[in-house]
Each structure stands twice: as structure tokens, then as C-alpha cells.
Amino acid sequence: MSAAERERRHFASDNWAGVHPEVLAAIAAVNSGHVPSYGHDEYTAAAMEKLRGVFGGDAEIFFVFGGTGANVLGLQTIAQSFNTVICAESAHIYTSECGAAEKLIGCKLTPVASSDGKIDRDGIARHLHHFGNDHHVQPSAVSISQASEYGTVYSPDEIRLIAAFARDHGLRLHMDGARLANAAAHLGVSLLEISGDAGVDVLSFGGTKNGMIAGEAVVFFDRALAQDFIYRRMQGMQLPSKMRFVAAQFDAMLTGELWRRSASHANDMAALLAGGIAALPGCNVTQRVQANEVFAVLPREHIAALQDISYFHVWDEAKSEARFLCSFDTTEDDVSRFLIAAARIITGGQNGP
Fold first, then answer.
1. pLDDT digit string (tens) for 49-61?
2. Which of 35, 96, 143, 282 is the most buried (most CB within 10 A)?
3. Fold exhibited by the domain 21-256
């Protein structure tokens, strides 16, 4: 791969982006000397103090390696093998984690149809039946994604309604917060306002999609649920030995609200990209652009040429619908370059900027 190819930025996923320079600097700053492993170090303690300042002093917080591990282990505290977890049909836990929850917990995931990635009380209610019937899995939890897999965002009131409805039926609420920062940035609220304060019991708080190398946090707003989590984490192979390097990343993200600065920028680039795509002949933006994702129907015959400019994924082949992701390092030039090239391709001009 040439140097020019390596410098190209793509719209395939925010996971494709590199690491934020402030995060790299924070890792370098703790890369000196020997300190206790497995989280028994001053850097982890400092990061935990910062996180409790964000999520509340009563929150129990645990670092893990990745989002799938965070989701599975978080759900494991509120679901057993005879339970079902109700989620959107587009939820990452349902579509993109290779059945990890179902294999490792043994529970069932029950999808709710949703055109925009969000679910509501009516969708959940359709799956609340057969309580006490030993022939059927028993609902124990609801899982929502914030932002959703379609880049749409739940308001605090929407989350509160779901949480209250779940609680009224004896269910817990889990949140996949892989892009929680983008949702909070869009709403102009704190991370706590759209998680614990809105009734979430267990949160997977993502960092990797927002400029970290690797590392997520499982946050319990009900401390009782975290009672055995240290054992679940180790048994689930999600306990980082050199935890100071995960902690340093979170410390950096929380310093000067880097998480918000990065997420806001990615959101802004997505809005800019969406506006440009909507203006292209034969293109149609299909979802509200509230976070850092853009979904659009594109002329099928031009998709391959457009992907050669900046790669993106086709989300729905049947509809010719593509998904674009913007990152903390997406620039206005990246967006402009793609849109200029796309206009030329679609209108029959040159295949390039």
C-alpha cells in the first residue's frame, strides 16, 4: 500500500480511523516504570475517579477490551439461559456479534421491527407474554443502542419511558453505548443524562469508535448487579492485565471533554456529508442524521466507482442503500473530495475529483 493510500480516509466505519493524538500522548505518559497489573495501579484509580464524576459516585465501573465483551458480560448480569433480551432488529448484539450473547449466556435475543433503529413501548409489549410458562423463554431485559445502528438518537424522555415500562414488567434496561458520545453531543447533554439518570441499569460505554485504540467500560448504575462482575469479567477473558493503558485512554477522553469534542466533530462531518449526498442526482438520504452516520440510497451502477474514491459499506443490497461513517479525524476536505468526485461520476463526468 502506497503512502498516499494509507493517508486516504474512508467512510466505512469509525473503527477504521486511527487513534486521537491526545489519547496516544496519554498512553505514552504512563509508559514508564513498573506498576501493579490488573487495575491495581494509580492510573486506573485516577481514571475511575473521573468516570464516577461523569456517571455518579454510586456507579460501579469496569474496564474491558471491546464492545462485544462489554455487551455480553453486561447482559450476563441481567439474563440467564432461559431468558430473552428484547432489542431492535438492527441491534449490534443481534446482527453483528456472531451470536455471542446467545452462545455465551445461552439466552435468546428477541428482535423488534424498527425502521429507524429505535424501539418503543409498543414494540417491546408485543413480546411480553408467557410469563411463568415453562415452555417459553422468560423476558428479563431490554437492550437499546445509543446512538442506534441507524445513527438515530433516543431523547432522555424516550429512554425514561422505556426504562419505566421495562421496570413495570420486571425487566432491566441495558444500553449499548458504543456511540453514546455522539448521542450526547447531538443532544447537548451529559453522558449521565441519557444513561443512568434516564433509568439505564447497565451501560456499555464505548471509546474505540471515538478515538481510542481499544477499551470499553461496563457501567452499573445498580451496584447490586455488579456484585459478581469481577469474576464474570475474568471468566469472560475481558480483564486487561496492563490496565493502565486502557485507563490512560479514558482519562484522556474525559480531560477537557475530548469525548464531546471528537464526537461533535464527527457528527458535524456527517451532517455536511449528508447534505452533499442529498443534493446528488438519484441519491436519497434515508435516515435522520443525528450522530455520525449517514444512510443513503445511491444509483446502483455507480456504487463501485464511488467506493474507489472513499470506501463505504452497502447496508441493504436490495434497496441499494449505503452506510457512511464519519470519525474524529474526518475533515471537510475529505467530505468535499468525495462529493466532488461523486457528482462527476453520477453525472457522467470523470471518475475522480
1. 999 999 999 999 9
2. 143
3. Aspartate Aminotransferase; domain 2 (3.40.640)
